Structure formats: structure tokens, C-alpha cells
Amino acid sequence: LQSLSDFNGLWYNLIFFVMIVVFTYFYTAITVNPNQMADDLKRQNSFVPGVKPGKPTADFLERVLSNITLPGSLMLALIAILPAIVFSLGLTKAQGFSIFFGGTSLLIMVGVVLDTLQQIESYLLSRHYDGLMKSGKLRGRPQSPVGGIAG
Description:
By secondary structure, the protein is an all-alpha fold. It is built from five helices and no strands. The protein has a domain of about 100 residues. α2 packs across α3, α3 crosses α4 and α3 crosses α5. It is flat.
């Protein structure tokens, strides 16, 4: 029982790994609905190239989802237990790093950085389009008189 509560123990990390894989499948099943996505695509007159709209699209999306969930969950679990692996290998210079930056905190930091970059990009795009919508013409473009002859 003591080995189950040791953060660097084999059984703790094995159970942690399996739980991450299982909960990744659970989270994906709850949050992603291929039938709803297929209906949304059909309603927007969009389609997946080479796949018929409706049920075939839902089947295709479900197949793709199941194909990418396994490698994604395995990589997620590996990243989460990577600090314990580094610590158990005895890499003394990396031990402080592996304790300070655990797998979970690394995932959170990367997620926050990616979300921040996406928000900055959408803000910059909205500012660009805002200028386009206000004046009805592109910014910085010189005015030319009617007929195109300056005079």
C-alpha cells in the first residue's frame, strides 16, 4: 500500500498512466459528438472532401476521432509521468527541473500560452477588419479622383 502513494514508485505511475488514458477517452466521448458535428457541417453547406454528408460524415469523424485519441492519450500520459521517469533515472541536474516543472504544470503552461497567442491573433485580425469595415476601403490606399486621372 505504501508503494501506491509514492510519487516516484512504479505502481503509482502505472496507475496514473492508465487513469490518464481512460479519462482522455471519457473526456473525448463527452465533449466531442461526431453526429452533431456532421449535422453542423450539413447545415452550413460544408462537407469533408470525399465523404458524403450525413451519416457517412459522422462515421468518418468517429473513425478519425478514435484513431487520434489513442496516440494523444498515450502522449499525454507520457508527458504527465515524464518527471517521475527523469527522477527515477537519477539525472541529478534534471531532478530540480522535473520536480519544479511537473508534467501537469507543463501541459497547463503550454495550453495557456497557445490560448493567449490565439487571442492575440484574433484581436489583431478583428482590428484589421474593423478598419476595413469603417471606411469601406483598404487602409493606406491613396485616393484617386473619379476617372483615374489626377489633375
